[in-house]
Design goal:
The chain has no helices and 8 strands. By secondary structure, it is mainly beta. It has a single domain, classed as Jelly Rolls (Sandwich), CATH 2.60.120. The protein has a 4-stranded antiparallel beta sheet, with no helix packed on it. The chain is globular and about 30 Å long. It starts with a strand and ends with a strand.
Length: 91
């Protein structure tokens, strides 16, 4: 498996997990990020999500363990303010 670094902004949700059952990611910036979930390939409408501070991560975590969203196959992230980065394992 490879990892890719994805840049995030605070103005929109960025897809970091496309039709996945589990995910590995880490906040690699000095600022917190939001992570949220969707059952379809449409960005969440909520303004906030789960908060991950600097260097916090999830490793091979099933997406259903992270949210109450029904069939959460799409994972999105965005910066809390300004810009941030997230490292995501890609298949």
């Amino acid at each position: 498996m490879a990892f890719s670094k994805i840049e995030l902004v605070d103005s929109e949700w960025t897809l970091i997990g496309d039709n996945v059952a589990s995910i590995t990611f880490q906040n690699v910036s000095q600022f917190p990020i939001y992570v949220n979930f969707s059952a379809s390939n449409t960005a969440p409408v909520e303004a906030v999500g789960l908060v991950y501070t600097s260097w916090q991560k999830e490793v091979k975590k099933t997406v259903t363990d992270l949210t109450y969203t029904s069939t959460p196959n799409y994972v999105y992230a965005k910066a809390m303010s300004g810009r941030s980065s997230v490292l995501v394992e890609t298949p």
